[in-house]
What we know:
Elements: H1 2-25, E1 39-46, E2 55-60, E3 63-67, E4 77-80, E5 85-86, E6 96-103, E7 106-111, E8 115-119, E9 124-129, E10 138-147, E11 150-157, E12 164-170, E13 175-180, E14 186-191, E15 200-205, E16 209-215, E17 220-227, E18 235-239, E19 242-247, E20 250-255, E21 258-264, E22 270-278, E23 281-286, E24 289-293, E25 298-303, E26 308-314, E27 318-325, E28 330-338
Antiparallel strand pairs: 1-28, 2-3, 3-4, 4-5, 6-7, 7-8, 8-9, 10-11, 11-12, 12-13, 14-15, 15-16, 16-17, 18-19, 19-20, 20-21, 22-23, 23-24, 24-25, 26-27, 27-28
Amino acid sequence: MTSKKTLIIFLTLIFTSLFLFNCEDNPTEPVPDPGRRDYVWQADTIQVPFFYIYRMWGSSPEDVWAVGPGGALSTTIWHYDGESWTTDNISRGVMPRCIWGTDKDNVWIGSSENKIWNYNGTNWSENIKFDVSNGNGISFGDIWGTSGNNIYAVGSSGYGENRIATIAHYNGKEWALMEFPEYQYYFVKICKGVKTSNNYFLIGHSEDSIGLFELDGKKLTQIIRKGVGQDNLMKVEEINSELFFAFNGTINRYKNNSFNPIYNYNQSIFSGGIFGRNQRDIFLSMKYGLMHFNGDTIEYILEFNDEYFNDMLIFNKKLFLITNNYKQNSNIIYKGTLK
């Protein structure tokens, strides 16, 4: 009996070890349902002379901010309360190019002229104006973070051959500026996949190329460089705490330090935007509208003409999409609601 009991215990330990090993070695993750496409669309128009909305951020569908440069200094910041878009018509020394927030009472704007502004739930105010080594002003192309104590604003100072890639970091108390004179790029995007990478990824534009960069917090490394052109547009986005890349006509999911292709699209009509809720609910901006990938197929869910896509904001059952119509000098914000 003793030897039989010992054998049973021994076999139990072996099978338990094998099971645990297999679970850790080949972890399974739930596959989400295909993303829905039954949206009802509405369009709002904001028309201010020489003003174009570049970026959006919101804490909810009833609290959305939209910003951009140009026009009067009193009409560069707009807010949507669930019913209508309004601006407070207060003239401010800010030319917004990007926006991001942690909640409705803590919103950040990256501007040109070295400036970053903050909204505290009541008022907008200038948070910092940087001094830069080459004497040229910083223009921030993106601002994003993982919390109120970890925010990055990225862009560049100077122009052309004198351009310097620039990254500012906020730790919750103060900003620190990092300049990379070896790279003559203007950064337009930064993000991080919490589940797929400990590093940050950035997209930058120079006079003759588009580059993908990786940042470990201090060290910046260029990992992809392509000549400027429609066929070389690329975009990176954090979707459900993972990194997704769109370039070379392929949607790529970043996993195990490599790019894993999941679907091919027509690169010649790609206009440089990828967004989504998960790996089976991804949106691509195209020349003629918005396409949706549901994990199996890709098709248009919104079509438009003479409009240039700028940004997109996704909530549980709502989408906000910014386009600019340069012929009519207008900004069109599409709102899509799932039936």
